[in-house]
Structures are given as C-alpha cells and as structure tokens.
Amino acid sequence: MVYVKKKKDSEEKSSEKSQGKKSSRNQVKNPLKIALTSKKNDKRKVRKDFFNKKSADSKARFNEDNSLKSSEREKKEGFRKNKREYRNENNQFRKDNDRHSHNSEGTIKRSFRNSDDETNKHPFRKERTPFERDNRNRNTKEGANRSQKPRKRNVTAESDILSEIIHLRRLEGRGSDRKPKILSLSWSEERGPIRLNKYIANAGISSRREADKLIEAGAVKVNGIVVTELGTKVMPTDEVRYEDKILQREKPVYILLNKPKDYITTTEDEKDRNHVMMLIEGACQERVYPVGRLDRNTTGLLLFTNDGEMAKKLTHPRYGVRKIYHVELDKNLSIEDFDKIVAGIELKDGLMKPDEVAFVGDSKKEIGITIHSGKNRIVRRLFEHLGYSIEKLDRVSYAGLTKKDLPRGHWRFLKKEEINILKMSI
Q: Which residues are catalytic?
C-alpha cells in the first residue's frame, strides 16, 4: 500500500514539473513569430526587417566589444611601459650607487672609472693588452654597424648618374650596353661613323644622289670645314651644316596607308592631281616618302618611311618581298589561262612567274595572286597579255603587313611588332 501511494505521489510531482516546463516554454515566445502574427499581410518584409535589425545589433555589439578590448589593451601596454621604465631607473640607480659607494666595514673599496691611479683599479679584473683592446673596439663597432638598418637605395640619383654617364659616352662616340632605341638602324649606324650623304638623306634634305651633288658643290660643312670629298664619314657628335642650318638625324618613321582610287603615288604633281601625300598630310614632322608605287586605279596597302635602307631592301627584287593582290576580272578566267599563269608568262621585260595563284571563292572572276616582283604594272600587264581586263585591283598584303582595322583612305603608324615583321621579311 505504501509503495503504491509513493508511486502516485511521484507521478503527480512529475506531471506538475512537466506542466511547469510546458507553461514556461509557452510563456517565452519567438519574437519573429510575434512579428509575423501581428503583420500577416506582408510576411516577407517582416522577416527582412527582423533579420536586418538582428544583424545591426550584432555588429554594434561586436564594435563595442572591440572598443573595450582596445582600451584594455592600451591600459596593459601603458602599465608594462611604466613598469619597464621603473625597472630601468632602479637598475641605473643601483649601478651608480655601486660605482660611487663609500668605504665601510664589510665592503670592498671601488675606484672611479676615470681614476688614473693604477692601485685603485678593480682587484679581480685582468689587465688587457693593447692588441686585445683594439680587437674589442673593432668588434663593438662591427656589432653596432650590424644592428643598424640597411640603407635604402636612391634609385632616382642612380638613374641620373647612369644617364649622365651614357650621355658622356655618346658624346665621345662610345655606346652603352643598352639596346638601340632606333629600330631600323644597327648599333654601328646609330653610334658609329656614317657616310655623309646618308646623314644628309636621313635628315630629310634630299636623296643620297642629290646629297652627293651638294657635297661636290661645297654646300655642306662638317665642324665648320667645307667637305667636298665623296665617301666622307661623320660621327653622331659632329656638327653638319647645310645653308647655315644644323642637320639632325631623324628618328625613323613608318606609316601604313590604305590607298583609295584616283590618287597617284608621288610626292608632288605638276598637274595638281590628287597624290598620296595629301592623305597623310600632317601625320609627322619628318620627311617621309612612299615605298614602291601603286597605280592610280589600284587600291590597297602603301608604306611610307624616311628609312632609306629599309625602303631600298623592300623594293629590291633580291630580297623577295611578298605582295598579295586581289584581282577582279571582266570575265571568267579559263583553266587553260590559269595554268599558263602558274607556269609563267614571257613578257617584254622578261619572264613573269607568280609565287602563288588561286581562285577566290566560287567565282572565276576573282583571283588571288602572290608575287615578289617590283616591276611597273606587272599584274595588269600579266592579265592583259592573256586578253583580260582588270576591273578592280587591291593589294591586301605587303611584306607581311595586312590592312586589318584600316579603312580605305586612312593611315596609321606601324607598331614595334610590325616593324620587326618588316625586318624579318628582308
């Protein structure tokens, strides 16, 4: 009986506890649920506002904790600093007290460091030889030098010094180890001696042949002396004058033009016709001229430069500079004539054999032809010999250069990579 009663009592107590827990749980409600029940219309906005507020509260709490931590850290650092200073003062006081201590019973008599009396020196200290003293002083100096931070290099001052050295070397005719900035001239041409007629031609006064005539006429002075001998060489540091004007070697310029129709390839025209120099007027201060030529009705790439060596190599057939033309005929090209062109055709000025010939697309009127010959009107004369008339002739490639992103009638300067392509092609 007693056992049963206890069991009932325990059951009642456990039920009371569980009810108490449930009631306590029910009393503490979720704030998000409360907000949702109060505003049932827009639950998404309620959730968004609730979580934004929660994140803002957590950030504010975090900043407050950080500020408290930083203040505590500052207090600790100040306390450590004061403690360190106090310890250093005590140590210094002890040292001074030991150094200047008075004679008393049970104490050892100590002398001042600056005393000259040898009898008052420390009795237990061993006297060092002069050699040992020198070594000690040297070691202390080396240690002090090692403890110092390494000095930073003054790059600006060094660059100024180097540029001054290079300038002096160039004035003396010696070059530096740097690569030459002028890409079309070799090292010897840029810094070494150069023929006088070439110097005048590079200055934009005239061609080399005309420069030879000027030299023979005595119109050119070098360092104030009239020079009439052909083949004379001058240094970059020499002063060359023509008509009381000091000549300077120009920096090489390379301009690529996509030539339109109705423009002749010449620098001047007596009949006041349109010429290609009008299209690049104002492009540069240097005196440039066209490399090779295109007919009045021929369109496509045309190169301008003041680099005589480069122009000579590009136009000479020995170097085999490749040119690609897009030809459009008045009628279809027969297979027989196509084979004749591939095999080569004998013209008045010799055999003309193209490097490559191919049809462009499905049309038999459009042909792509690659040649390296620089003869006048060679492509037109080739097809006219077979009885065809060319309606359109366009040079699409010249020495590896293309007219990509270059509209008709526009020009642009060559990039360094393209100049390198030109050099590789010759």
A: 295
